[in-house]
Amino acid sequence: MNRARNIDTFRHAFAAPTSASAVSGTVATHLTQGGTVPLTRAGMRKQVVQNLSQVAPPGEEFVACVHVETGMSPWLAHLLERIPLVGGLIGIAIYSSREYYFITLTNTSLVVHRAARLTNRPKDFMFAVPIAASPISDIKKGWLLWSRMHFLFPGELKPSRLNFHRIWNADIQHFIAAMPHAVEGAEKFGVAPAIPGQGTFAADAVPSDQQR
Protein backbone atom coordinates (compact mmCIF):
# COMPACT_ATOMS: atom_id res chain seq x y z
CA MET A 1 0.00 0.00 0.00
CA ASN A 2 1.20 3.52 -0.81
CA ARG A 3 2.97 5.00 2.21
CA ALA A 4 1.58 8.50 1.77
CA ARG A 5 -1.92 7.04 1.57
CA ASN A 6 -1.32 5.18 4.82
CA ILE A 7 -0.43 8.33 6.70
CA ASP A 8 -3.41 10.20 5.20
CA THR A 9 -5.68 7.41 6.46
CA PHE A 10 -4.10 7.70 9.90
CA ARG A 11 -4.77 11.43 10.02
CA HIS A 12 -8.28 11.11 8.60
CA ALA A 13 -9.18 8.72 11.44
CA PHE A 14 -9.40 11.80 13.64
CA ALA A 15 -11.38 13.91 11.18
CA ALA A 16 -12.29 16.81 13.46
CA PRO A 17 -9.59 18.37 15.70
CA THR A 18 -10.48 17.83 19.31
CA SER A 19 -9.36 19.44 22.54
CA ALA A 20 -6.70 17.55 24.44
CA SER A 21 -9.07 16.78 27.30
CA ALA A 22 -11.48 15.07 24.91
CA VAL A 23 -8.88 12.70 23.50
CA SER A 24 -8.26 10.39 26.35
CA GLY A 25 -10.22 11.32 29.43
CA THR A 26 -8.17 11.22 32.58
CA VAL A 27 -4.87 10.48 30.83
CA ALA A 28 -5.05 13.54 28.58
CA THR A 29 -6.22 15.60 31.52
CA HIS A 30 -3.25 14.39 33.55
CA LEU A 31 -0.85 15.45 30.78
CA THR A 32 -2.35 18.91 30.40
CA GLN A 33 -2.33 19.92 34.05
CA GLY A 34 -0.03 22.77 34.94
CA GLY A 35 1.00 26.00 33.22
CA THR A 36 0.52 27.02 29.61
CA VAL A 37 3.94 28.52 28.88
CA PRO A 38 5.56 26.43 26.11
CA LEU A 39 9.04 26.60 27.66
CA THR A 40 7.90 24.84 30.83
CA ARG A 41 7.55 21.07 31.02
CA ALA A 42 3.82 21.32 31.67
CA GLY A 43 3.37 23.76 28.78
CA MET A 44 5.32 21.58 26.38
CA ARG A 45 3.31 18.50 27.35
CA LYS A 46 0.05 20.38 26.90
CA GLN A 47 0.97 21.51 23.40
CA VAL A 48 2.16 18.02 22.44
CA VAL A 49 -1.18 16.50 23.45
CA GLN A 50 -3.09 19.21 21.61
CA ASN A 51 -1.11 18.53 18.43
CA LEU A 52 -1.52 14.78 18.73
CA SER A 53 -5.26 15.08 19.25
CA GLN A 54 -5.52 16.33 15.67
CA VAL A 55 -4.07 13.16 14.13
CA ALA A 56 -4.63 10.35 16.64
CA PRO A 57 -7.14 7.60 15.85
CA PRO A 58 -10.09 7.08 18.21
CA GLY A 59 -9.25 5.22 21.40
CA GLU A 60 -5.62 6.29 21.49
CA GLU A 61 -4.57 7.14 25.05
CA PHE A 62 -1.66 9.45 25.76
CA VAL A 63 0.58 8.34 28.60
CA ALA A 64 3.77 10.43 28.65
CA CYS A 65 6.13 12.42 26.46
CA VAL A 66 9.75 13.55 26.45
CA HIS A 67 11.66 16.35 24.71
CA VAL A 68 14.94 15.12 23.25
CA GLU A 69 17.91 16.44 21.29
CA THR A 70 20.29 14.54 19.06
CA GLY A 71 24.08 14.60 19.17
CA MET A 72 26.77 14.29 21.78
CA SER A 73 26.23 14.61 25.49
CA PRO A 74 25.41 18.20 26.48
CA TRP A 75 28.00 17.81 29.24
CA LEU A 76 30.75 17.09 26.69
CA ALA A 77 29.48 19.88 24.45
CA HIS A 78 29.71 22.29 27.36
CA LEU A 79 33.34 21.32 27.98
CA LEU A 80 34.27 21.70 24.32
CA GLU A 81 32.67 25.14 24.19
CA ARG A 82 35.07 26.28 26.92
CA ILE A 83 38.20 25.61 24.85
CA PRO A 84 40.01 28.93 24.40
CA LEU A 85 39.78 30.63 20.99
CA VAL A 86 37.89 27.85 19.20
CA GLY A 87 35.24 27.00 21.79
CA GLY A 88 32.72 29.44 20.36
CA LEU A 89 32.97 27.96 16.86
CA ILE A 90 32.70 24.44 18.26
CA GLY A 91 29.59 25.43 20.18
CA ILE A 92 27.95 26.89 17.08
CA ALA A 93 28.75 23.75 15.09
CA ILE A 94 27.33 21.47 17.77
CA TYR A 95 24.17 23.55 18.21
CA SER A 96 23.48 23.83 14.49
CA SER A 97 23.87 20.07 14.01
CA ARG A 98 21.41 19.11 16.74
CA GLU A 99 17.83 18.11 15.95
CA TYR A 100 15.00 18.36 18.45
CA TYR A 101 11.97 16.09 18.86
CA PHE A 102 9.10 15.18 21.12
CA ILE A 103 8.52 11.46 21.57
CA THR A 104 5.12 10.58 22.99
CA LEU A 105 4.13 7.26 24.51
CA THR A 106 0.52 6.20 23.96
CA ASN A 107 -1.24 2.99 24.91
CA THR A 108 -0.08 1.37 21.64
CA SER A 109 2.61 3.46 20.02
CA LEU A 110 5.50 5.89 20.04
CA VAL A 111 4.64 9.10 18.21
CA VAL A 112 7.31 11.55 17.05
CA HIS A 113 6.97 15.29 16.41
CA ARG A 114 9.67 17.74 15.48
CA ALA A 115 10.37 20.44 18.07
CA ALA A 116 11.23 24.09 17.49
CA ARG A 117 14.90 24.83 18.10
CA LEU A 118 14.45 28.04 20.09
CA THR A 119 11.04 27.77 21.75
CA ASN A 120 10.73 23.99 22.31
CA ARG A 121 7.25 24.10 20.81
CA PRO A 122 6.08 20.88 19.11
CA LYS A 123 5.95 21.26 15.34
CA ASP A 124 4.98 18.88 12.55
CA PHE A 125 3.95 15.27 13.11
CA MET A 126 6.57 12.89 11.70
CA PHE A 127 5.52 9.29 12.29
CA ALA A 128 4.17 6.73 14.75
CA VAL A 129 5.46 3.20 15.32
CA PRO A 130 4.18 0.36 17.54
CA ILE A 131 5.71 0.15 20.99
CA ALA A 132 6.57 -3.47 20.26
CA ALA A 133 8.59 -2.41 17.19
CA SER A 134 11.13 -1.44 19.86
CA PRO A 135 12.80 1.62 18.27
CA ILE A 136 14.10 2.74 21.69
CA SER A 137 17.13 1.14 23.33
CA ASP A 138 19.85 1.82 25.90
CA ILE A 139 17.88 4.15 28.16
CA LYS A 140 20.31 5.40 30.78
CA LYS A 141 19.29 7.94 33.40
CA GLY A 142 22.17 10.16 34.45
CA TRP A 143 22.99 11.16 38.00
CA LEU A 144 22.72 14.90 37.42
CA LEU A 145 21.11 16.91 34.61
CA TRP A 146 21.26 14.83 31.43
CA SER A 147 20.34 11.30 30.46
CA ARG A 148 20.24 9.50 27.13
CA MET A 149 18.61 6.81 25.02
CA HIS A 150 18.97 5.54 21.48
CA PHE A 151 16.20 5.64 18.88
CA LEU A 152 16.13 3.83 15.53
CA PHE A 153 14.43 6.18 13.07
CA PRO A 154 12.59 4.64 10.10
CA GLY A 155 14.86 4.18 7.12
CA GLU A 156 18.08 4.37 9.14
CA LEU A 157 20.48 1.51 9.85
CA LYS A 158 21.89 2.76 13.16
CA PRO A 159 20.09 4.18 16.20
CA SER A 160 20.57 7.86 16.99
CA ARG A 161 21.62 9.09 20.39
CA LEU A 162 18.94 11.23 22.04
CA ASN A 163 19.61 13.30 25.16
CA PHE A 164 16.91 14.34 27.60
CA HIS A 165 16.93 16.62 30.65
CA ARG A 166 16.15 15.37 34.15
CA ILE A 167 12.85 17.31 34.21
CA TRP A 168 11.52 14.47 32.02
CA ASN A 169 12.57 11.67 34.39
CA ALA A 170 9.02 11.08 35.62
CA ASP A 171 7.84 10.65 32.03
CA ILE A 172 10.74 8.35 31.21
CA GLN A 173 9.60 6.03 33.99
CA HIS A 174 6.42 5.42 31.95
CA PHE A 175 8.55 4.60 28.90
CA ILE A 176 10.58 2.15 30.98
CA ALA A 177 7.42 0.53 32.37
CA ALA A 178 6.13 0.02 28.82
CA MET A 179 9.50 -1.11 27.41
CA PRO A 180 11.63 -2.64 30.19
CA HIS A 181 13.79 -4.26 27.52
CA ALA A 182 14.88 -0.76 26.42
CA VAL A 183 16.84 0.00 29.59
CA GLU A 184 20.60 -0.26 29.21
CA GLY A 185 21.77 -3.64 30.51
CA ALA A 186 18.24 -5.10 30.62
CA GLU A 187 19.44 -8.39 29.11
CA LYS A 188 21.67 -8.92 32.14
CA PHE A 189 18.55 -9.09 34.28
CA GLY A 190 16.75 -11.53 32.01
CA VAL A 191 14.31 -9.05 30.48
CA ALA A 192 12.87 -10.54 27.29
CA PRO A 193 13.06 -8.46 24.09
CA ALA A 194 9.92 -7.05 22.52
CA ILE A 195 8.04 -8.88 19.76
CA PRO A 196 7.96 -6.67 16.63
CA GLY A 197 4.78 -6.02 14.72
CA GLN A 198 2.29 -5.31 17.49
CA GLY A 199 0.42 -2.03 17.94
CA THR A 200 -1.97 0.30 16.17
CA PHE A 201 0.44 1.90 13.73
CA ALA A 202 2.85 0.27 11.29
CA ALA A 203 6.40 1.48 10.75
CA ASP A 204 5.86 1.36 6.99
CA ALA A 205 3.13 3.98 7.34
CA VAL A 206 5.84 6.66 7.28
CA PRO A 207 5.90 8.48 3.96
CA SER A 208 9.32 9.15 2.51
CA ASP A 209 8.86 12.92 2.82
CA GLN A 210 8.31 12.59 6.60
CA GLN A 211 11.42 10.56 7.33
CA ARG A 212 14.56 12.19 8.71
UniProtKB/TrEMBL annotation:
Q: What is this protein called?
A: YokE-like PH domain-containing protein
